[in-house]
Every structure is written in structure tokens, then in C-alpha cells.
Amino acid sequence: MAACCGNGAALLAPDWRSKNERFWLVLLQVCVSATLAARGWLTWKWDSPVRGLVWQEEWWSGLLEKQFSIPWEEFAKKSDPVITSGLALIGCLLIALAIAPWLAGRFPKGRWLLWVAAFLLLVDSVARWVGKDYDFGMAIEHSLQMFTPVALYFALSFPKRIRAVALGIAVATALTFIGHGFYAAGIHPVPLSYQTMTAKLLGTGGEATLRFLLIAGWLDIMAAIALFIAPLRRPALLYCLGWGLLTALARVVSHFNFSVSGWALDPWLAETLVRSSHWMMPLLLLGLLRRDSRLP
Q1: CB distance 188 to 180 below 8 Å
Q2: How far out from the chain centre does Cα 145 lie?
Q3: How many CB atoms lie within 10 A of CB 203?
Q4: How far apart are the C-alpha atoms of 31 and 98, rounded to whole Å?
Q5: Cβ–Cβ contacts within 10 Å for residue 79, how many?
Q6: Is 70 exceeded by the pLDDT of residue 184?
Q7: 252: Cβ–Cβ under 8 A, 6 or more apart, which residues?
Q8: Is residue 2 scored above 60 in pLDDT?
Q9: Does 90 or 162 have the greater pLDDT score?
Q10: Neighbours of 20 (CB within 10 A)
Q11: What are the distances in angstroms from CA 103 to CA 133, 210, 275?
Q12: CA pair distance 257, 175, nearest whole angstrom
């Protein structure tokens, strides 16, 4: 019991004698580890939108010229190798932080590592938001990925505040699905990746693919709202669980190819794993509802 939670900390109660309670904490730990390891691999091996933050000329040119007497043109010519090395370092750090959920469970003094992980995921998400011209949907789409390390921190540090943790996870789930829904429903321009992946999996043409995504997008938005309507909460979570799992698996399934070296699993397996929270957190909330119907 102490090895799992450290000082008796628990997600649902101070006492971890129940196998059911241990399972939900471990699920949260697995989710955080998978998210960090996958995001780290993608950053290290496949670059990161954080590069775009550094290349925001309107942000940095004045500072560079006034404080360091470095013209933007000179910075642009010489900075790329440094940025590449920095992103590789961030990727390796994220991969290393994948062990933080387990260290945090054993050693309370190591729980600050979860905040480091959350900060790095926040920077990645902000970079994606800026890269999408400040779309509202992108601002909230990665809420679950960012929030899971924070949820684990509070679950371990304040074991009696289960309702607060559950509410935070529910809000993050709703924001993530609304963000996805905005893109799928065409409120923001539908990403080409959504269209090609859906068409490949379903064998549909362009118009039918867009209709399917339109329906799925509005279902995402309605499910997010239904999370906070007590009679609809369980069906909404079941939808989020099923659809979150399917859309995560779609990344690897739609690109899987026996004839390609490594079966084209890289980077698509990591793209699947980085979305673990999209289905694991609805599953966790369903488990908590079995214990307390007032949650979240």
C-alpha cells in the first residue's frame, strides 16, 4: 500500500486496502506516463511546434536588438542548430519524466516533478495554439494532456479531495472534446489530417467524410455539455471513452503498413499514446461514479 501511494495518499480515500481504489490511481499514473513518454518521443524524434514560438519575429526581434545587439537576420541564420538541440533536450526530459508518476507515488518530495511535466506540456500546447493562429479550439484541445499531471499531484497530495480532482478531470475532458468538435464540425477549418484519416478508415469520399466529421464534431460538443447534466453524465462518459479510444487508435491503424519498415508505427504509435488521456480519463470518471454518484 505504501509503495503505491506514499504516506497512505490515495485517489479516493486515505485507505488503499480496496483493490478498486488502487486500480484508478494506477490508471492515472499510467496515463501520465504514456502522455509524457509519447510527447517526449515526438518532440525528440519528430520536432515540435515550440520551434515556431522561437521563430516569432515580432515577439523577439526587439528584445534581441535592444538587449543583446543581435539583428533578427543574424539570429535567424545561426539559431536553428541551437533550437534543434534544445528541442531534443526537452524531448529527452519529457521521456525521463515519464517515471515521475511512479516516483511521486513513492516519494512525496518528488511530486514537484509533476509540475515540471505539466509546464512542458503547457508550453507545447501554447505553441500549437499560436501555430493555429490562436484558434479557440486549439487553445483548449490539449486540456486533458496538460491537466493529467496536475490531477495526479492533487490526487496524491490531497487524497480526501476526490470530488475536486474529479471535477477538474471532467472540465478538462469537456474542453478537450469541445476543441476536437470545433475542428470536426467545421467551426474552425477541418484539418486535412482529419479528412484523410477518416476517408482512409471508412472508405468515404470527400463530401461523405465531411458529413461524418460534422456529425462527430457536434456529438463531441454535446457530450462535453452532457458531462455536467447528472442524468446524462454516464452516457456522455461512455461516448467520450469509446470515441476517445477510437480516435486515438485511428492514428496508428490508418497508417499501419506491413510493407514499410517498422510497419509505419513511428510516429503513429506515439500519436496514439499521447492521446491516452482522451479515453483513460473518461474511464476513470466512470469508475469514480460507481463509488459516488455525485461526482464530478
Answers
A1: no
A2: 2
A3: 9
A4: 10
A5: 18
A6: yes
A7: 265, 268, 269, 271, 272
A8: no
A9: 90
A10: 10
A11: 38, 45, 22
A12: 33
